[in-house]
Design goal:
It contains three helices and four strands. By secondary structure, it is α/β, with parallel strands linked by helices.
C-alpha cells in the first residue's frame, strides 16, 4: 500500500501494525504502533525512516503533510 499511495518524502502514520509485505522504492517517513523488522529493512533500503508516533508528533505538531493509512 505504501508504494501505491505515497509520494517521495511523505510522512505516514499507520494506526496499527506495519508488515514487510510488498515493496517500497520511495523514501518516506513512517510511524506506526508496531513495525516488523522486515518493514524497517525495506523502508530504510528505500531511503526512508521509521520513527515513533511521539517523534512524528513532535516533528510535525500541526500534522501538516502527514497521511494516515490503515
Amino acid at each position: 500500500k505504501l508504494e501505491r499511495y505515497t509520494e517521495a518524502n511523505d510522512a505516514i502514520v499507520v494506526p496499527g501494525s506495519l508488515l514487510g509485505a510488498g515493496d517500497i522504492t520511495k523514501p518516506v517517513t513512517v510511524a506506526a504502533i508496531k513495525v516488523s523488522a522486515g518493514a524497517v529493512t525495506k523502508i530504510e533500503q528505500a531511503g526512508g525512516t521509521v520513527v515513533t508516533l511521539d517523534h512524528l508528533a513532535t516533528d510535525r505538531p500541526k500534522g501538516q503533510g502527514v497521511r494516515i493509512m490503515g
